[in-house]
Design brief:
mainly alpha, single chain, 1 helix, about 70 residues
């Protein structure tokens, strides 16, 4: 089965390796593809977090303004 994508190669020596897209990461089959997908996911999460922070900051400011009491 040598040369078959995703099939462990090697022998009884214990030096088995998995080749190709069958490695289970769902990317292009190599570490750089997986890193690229993770980077994209983190960039999207950071963007969403920034949006949420902006919205909650405005809401908190509105709430604080509504709670203030007039000074005598």
């Amino acid at each position: 089965m040598a040369g078959v994508t995703g099939v462990p190669t090697g022998g009884a020596g214990g030096n088995a390796s998995v080749t190709g897209a069958g490695a289970g990461n769902g990317a292009s089959g190599d570490a750089s593809g997986a890193i690229g997908q993770m980077s994209a996911a983190f960039d999207q999460a950071i963007s969403k977090a920034a949006e949420i922070t902006a919205i909650t900051t405005v809401k908190k400011a509105e709430l604080d303004a509504a709670k203030q009491r007039p000074q005598n």
